[in-house]
Design a protein that fits this description.
single chain, 65% helix, mainly alpha
C-alpha cells in the first residue's frame, strides 16, 4: 500500500514540478531584468557624448547631417520633458533600459516568426539572453568610435516591431506596418533593413515569389512592401527638403580624399581596435555564420540574403566598425 501511487498523488507531483519550473523561470527572468539594468548603466557610462549626440541640440535641429534627420525621439522628448532633463544621465539611462526591455520582450515573437514553432519558456528565455549577448558585443565591447546616440537602441525595438507587422497574417496589422515604418524612418533611416527582412521572410514562405516573369506566384503583400520601402525613402527625401538640405547630405561615400570603403579597410588592417570590432559583429558572426550557414532554417537564410545588399551599402557609406549601425540586424543574428 505504501509503495503505490494513485492518480491524485501523481497529479500533485506534476503540479509541484510545474510550480518549481515556473519558480525557476521567474528566478532566471529576474536575473535577466538585472542584467538589462547593468547593461544600460555600462552603456551610458562607456559611450561618449559628442557634439552631434546632445539631445537638446538635436531637438533644436542644431546638429550636422545626417544625424539631424534622426529627429523622432529628440522632438518627442522635448515635447514631453523639461529642457533640463533632456541630457540628464538618468534620462538617457532610462531610455536605454526601456529600449532594451522592449527588445527582449519582442525577441521570442521575432524568433517564432523566423523559425516557426511556438517556443517554450526555456527557449524564449534562451533567445532573450542571446539577444542581450549580441547587443553587448555591439554596444559595450568595441573600443573604436564609441559614441552615444539617443536613437540607436530604440532602433532595435522599432526594427523588430516593423518586421513583425509587415509579416503578420492579419492584413490590418500589415497595413499598420505600412503606416508606422515610415514614421520609424524619422528615428533612423536604417529601418529599411526591416523591410528587406520582411521581403526575405515572404520569399521563404512563397517559393517562386522571386520570379519576375511569373506574377501569379507573387504574394499579395508585395505591393505593401514595395509601398513601404518607397515611403521610407520618400520620408527621408521630404525631410531633406523640409530642412533645406541637399539630398546628398543623407549619405557620403567619401572620407577626406578617399573612398570610405577603402578607408574602412585600411583602419581594420592597421588598428587592432577596429579589427576587433569586426570580430564583435554578431558576437563572432564572421566565424560562426559561414560554419553554420547550411544548418540555418530556410527562412533565416532568405532573410540574410534579402538584407545583404544593405550590408554592402553600409560598407560603402558608413564606418562599418561602428557596430551601432547594425541595430536592426541584431535580432536576426541572435536567432
Amino acid at each position: 500500500k505504501g509503495g503505490r501511487t494513485g492518480p491524485g498523488r501523481s497529479d500533485a507531483r506534476q503540479k509541484d514540478s510545474q510550480a518549481m519550473s515556473a519558480k525557476g523561470h521567474n528566478f532566471k527572468g529576474t536575473w535577466l531584468l538585472a542584467a538589462t539594468a547593468l547593461f544600460a548603466w555600462v552603456y551610458i557610462a562607456s559611450n561618449r557624448v559628442g557634439p552631434n549626440s546632445v539631445i537638446s541640440r538635436h531637438a533644436d535641429l542644431a546638429i550636422d547631417p545626417p544625424f539631424v534627420f534622426r529627429l523622432l525621439l529628440p522632438e518627442l522628448m522635448q515635447a514631453l520633458l523639461p529642457s533640463a532633463w533632456l541630457d540628464a544621465g538618468i534620462t538617457r539611462g532610462m531610455l536605454a533600459w526601456l529600449s532594451l526591455a522592449g527588445a527582449l520582450w519582442l525577441m521570442p515573437r521575432f524568433a517564432e516568426r523566423c523559425i516557426g514553432p511556438r517556443l517554450d519558456a526555456h527557449e524564449r528565455l534562451r533567445h532573450q539572453w542571446t539577444l542581450l549577448g549580441v547587443l553587448v558585443a555591439h554596444y559595450l565591447l568595441p573600443r573604436a568610435l564609441k559614441f552615444y546616440y539617443v536613437y540607436d537602441l530604440p532602433a532595435v525595438v522599432m526594427g523588430m516591431g516593423s518586421f513583425l507587422l509587415l509579416t503578420a497574417a492579419n492584413w490590418r496589422l500589415c497595413l499598420l506596418g505600412l503606416i508606422l515604418t515610415p514614421v520609424f524612418a524619422l528615428n533612423r533611416e536604417t529601418i529599411v533593413v526591416s523591410v528587406c527582412l520582411a521581403v526575405g521572410w515572404h520569399l521563404a514562405q512563397h517559393p517562386g515569389a522571386w520570379r519576375v516573369t511569373a506574377p501569379s506566384t507573387w504574394p499579395r503583400v508585395w505591393p505593401v512592401l514595395a509601398a513601404c520601402g518607397a515611403a521610407v525613402l520618400g520620408t527621408r527625401y521630404a525631410l531633406t527638403h523640409a530642412l533645406d538640405l541637399p539630398a546628398v547630405s543623407s549619405v557620403s561615400w567619401m572620407e577626406d580624399d578617399q573612398f570610405r570603403l577603402w578607408a574602412n579597410l585600411k583602419r581594420i588592417a592597421t588598428k587592432h581596435t577596429h579589427a576587433l570590432a569586426v570580430l564583435w559583429f554578431g558576437a563572432g558572426a564572421v566565424i560562426w555564420l559561414p560554419r553554420r550557414w547550411s544548418a540555418l532554417p530556410r527562412t533565416v537564410r532568405w532573410m540574410f540574403v534579402a538584407a545583404l545588399p544593405l550590408f554592402v551599402v553600409y560598407a560603402i557609406v558608413g564606418n562599418i566598425v561602428e557596430l551601432r549601425m547594425f541595430s536592426e540586424f541584431t535580432p536576426l543574428l541572435a536567432v
